[in-house]
């Protein structure tokens, strides 16, 4: 019997003996994946539906497969090594490559922290509350939760906030989409090779397979002490969380396409809220604001935590949300600094949706770098032993990472050629 089959058999035995084990361990995978449905995610998915109607659904089907693969590898690395991704990168790669990985993480995540607080500000502005009031209060609240609360308490709150996403499936049902076109576009490619479509495609990759999700997944699994014996349930959490999150993402695309498909890329939260009119009528903006607030607050804590985890791991410093400031000064200091910078920059006037979309494109370009490190680590028997990627899984993972990288390279090349006047 192969090692892969032995692991599968062990997983089934574990789940039969402890059917409530999944509920007991549920959390990191669902939190990590659903944190991708943040302010930038909602803006990107809604814009995809508005601009391209159902044409990006097949791409989302492929992205779902890739997300499941990378989230599972991240969770497995955390469970079988007891370490986060950056700690493993520091141990397994050169100082130069480790520094490069850290730089990519910081650039991508700091921009996302800004967008999360901008999302909170935009959400509460729909209720008539100035962002100059809401953003500082949100920053203090999120910082206090992590700095003074317990990890398990924070995790329950994150899961509770993710329930706001359930408004989108209802909007999809009540919006009466063209189900024939939905099904056809979900199983058959309807791509456009235009630069605008490819930009949206990269943004979808960037907001769905965001680097902080993998870093948070592995670090949270290790932080909770989830080991090989508990991994069968954690695998259910990681895979199930990824699938659930992307179903919600596709609901956002479909609901928006049914409501305002063909109107081009969105430029405001009020425009995006129109997709929820079948659910709330004139209260659509308020319902959208609640969802946007929950999504932004969820990721507003997870994103800076992932950066703090990553950098602290890379230098071998103490890292845990259950530690006091005096016990983990670098970890909590990094978290605090990101909250401060993110909230401060979010107060600068500007077009929120343009900022959100641009940050997802940036993430889409950086994502293949982090995925490459994860793939190499999960392929190394010296790191995972018998839990290393099986040949079939390795092939699927390699194809996923290669396609994401090729898409990012294509967009970068087109952009550079456009700057040089070499494209029409």
Round the mean pLDDT to the nearest integer and report it. Answer: 83
Q: Tell me, what is the CATH class? A: Mainly Alpha
Number of helices: 21
CATH architecture: Up-down Bundle
Number of domains: 1
Q: How do the helices and strands follow one another from N- to C-terminus? A: HHHHHHHHHHHHHHHHHHHHH
Apparent shape:
globular
Going by CATH, what is the homologous superfamily? Amino acid/polyamine transporter I
Provide structural commentary:
The protein has 21 helices and no strands. The chain is globular and about 55 Å long. The chain has helices at 3-17, 21-25, 28-34, 39-52, 57-81, 85-92, 95-125, 131-148, 151-161, 167-174, 179-187, 195-208, 211-223, 231-260, 269-272, 277-280, 284-315, 329-346, 352-379, 381-384, 391-419. It is mostly helical and 424 residues long. The protein is 77% helix and 0% strand. The termini are far apart. It has a single domain, classed as Amino acid/polyamine transporter I (Up-down Bundle), CATH 1.20.1740.
Fold topology:
Blueprint: H1 3-17, H2 21-25, H3 28-34, H4 39-52, H5 57-81, H6 85-92, H7 95-125, H8 131-148, H9 151-161, H10 167-174, H11 179-187, H12 195-208, H13 211-223, H14 231-260, H15 269-272, H16 277-280, H17 284-315, H18 329-346, H19 352-379, H20 381-384, H21 391-419
Structural key phrases:
single chain, 424 residues, mainly alpha, Amino acid/polyamine transporter I, globular
